[in-house]
Write a structure and sequence with these properties.
Bound molecules: pyridoxal-5'-phosphate
Shape: globular
Radius of gyration: 21 Å
Strand content: 15-25%
Distance between the termini: 25 Å
Largest sheet: 7 strands, mixed
CATH class of the largest domain: Alpha Beta
Number of helices: 14
Order of helices and strands: HHEHEHEHEHEEEEEHEEHHEEEHHHHEH
Helix content: 25-40%
Number of strands: 15
CATH superfamily of the largest domain: Type I PLP-dependent aspartate aminotransferase-like (Major domain)
Number of domains: 2
Strand order of the largest sheet: 1-9-8-5-4-2-3
Length: about 375
């Protein structure tokens, strides 16, 4: 059997809760979505939550919620999934990239400062691989310049920063429930916030910008206040999410143990940089195990590693091809190789090893053995 880089964990309990919704009177956004929102909000310590169709919709909804408009500049990292920057473009804003910090893969806060202009409206931080970025310093910059903070926490449900759960470190926090993320709803996402007016805007945005219950005399009355989308999550998905939610802690703990086991197995090897360990300040949710290999000094290529791993039944992955190097971003904004050298170096070196709660010891040993063989022989 092949070993993927990641996969979902589905139990009978998950299946049963979805079936229950299928047998009920309501399928799309209803009581299960309400409950899922309340439970996620409580888990992360936020006041309000809006469930949406996927993590990308969560980012778009967050941008709308905080009022990103044409001409606004938003500072973010090029070392992420395309959706982190695309949501700014959907909103008519301008993406301003700041390179990452080499050790943590997180946005370099010293560089963020240099990118602030009169047009800057927000900063989007990404908790890469589940490791929270430097939210305290980002908050200082945001406060000083009157900016809004958005967290792309697609990787970091279940992570902690200075003793606090990821969820209220930014003004709005976005989660994804794609099958490889901490918990899954198939496709799905959520935005959480403590700000009531941002919450109300985001809730409208999920359903075409439509507001109901505006006039009590006409029970059918509704009005469209903004140009929103259909970003609704279904009750089947919410039931799956609710069922998964009770296992966030155990999912993250298992991931952490597996990650520590990888790090222990590789400490003696050359040409490697292991991912940062958890500290009192930052506790990762271990969405990924991002190993960095100096292929140039090893005198072997990443292509060869991937081909040999595949032959051994191991599917590796790379996170990420920097967004500024994507053909669309090059064509539209004139980016080129060399623009964000730390991200490009990280891309050249990074390999994500298989990491998910159901990865067995025997499977992990196989990955470790293979990696040691590749790195030593
Ligand atoms: C997964 C992911 C997203 C998008 O989430 P989807 O649910 O796939 O739309 C956004 N940002 C990051 C960093 C992600 O990993």
């Amino acid at each position: 059997m092949t070993i993927p880089y990641s996969t979902q964990t589905i139990r009978k309990k998950d299946i049963d809760s979805v079936v229950k919704v299928l047998q009920s009177a309501w399928l799309t956004t209803g009581p299960w979505v309400d409950q899922f929102e309340q439970k996620v909000a409580r888990l992360v310590g936020a006041k309000y939550a809006v469930a949406v169709a996927n993590g990308t919709a969560a980012l778009h909804t967050a941008c709308f919620g905080v009022g990103i408009r044409a001409g606004d500049e938003v500072i973010t990292t090029p070392y992420s999934f395309a959706a982190t920057a695309n949501c700014v473009l959907y909103s008519g804003g301008k993406v301003v990239f700041a390179d990452i910090d080499r050790a943590s893969f997180g946005i370099n806060t010293a560089l963020v400062k240099t990118k602030v202009t009169k047009k800057t409206k927000a900063i989007i931080g990404v908790d890469f691989a589940g490791l929270p970025c430097d939210w305290q310093r980002l908050k200082q910059i945001a406060t000083k310049h009157g900016l809004t903070l958005i967290a792309d926490a697609a990787h970091s449900l279940g992570a902690q920063y200075r003793g606090k759960a990821v969820g209220t470190l930014a003004d709005v926090t976005c989660f994804s429930f794609h099958p490889v993320k901490t918990i899954t709803t198939g496709e799905g996402g959520m935005v959480v916030t403590n700000n009531k007016s941002i919450y109300e805007r985001m809730r409208r945005f999920r359903t075409h910008g439509i507001l109901k219950d505006v006039r009590k005399t006409e029970p059918w009355y509704y009005e469209m206040r903004d140009l929103g989308f259909n970003y609704r999550l279904t009750d089947m998905q919410a039931a799956l999410g609710l069922s998964q939610l009770s296992r966030v802690k155990s999912f993250v703990n298992t991931r952490r143990q597996l990650a520590q086991r990888y790090s222990k197995a590789f400490t003696d090897l050359k040409y490697l940089r292991l991912p940062q360990n958890d500290t009192d300040e930052k506790k990762s949710s271990w969405h990924l195990y991002p190993l960095r290999i100096d292929f140039a000094r090893l005198r072997k290529s990443k292509g060869k590693l991937f081909a040999q791993a595949k032959r051994a039944g191991i599917f590796l992955q790379v996170h990420y091809i920097p967004i500024h190097l994507q053909p669309y971003y090059r064509k539209m904004f004139g980016y080129k190789r060399g623009d964000f050298p730390i991200s490009e170096e990280a891309y050249n070196q990074e390999v994500s090893l298989p990491l998910y709660p159901t990865l067995t010891r025997a499977q992990q040993d196989k990955v470790i053995q293979f990696m040691r063989w590749f790195l030593i022989s």
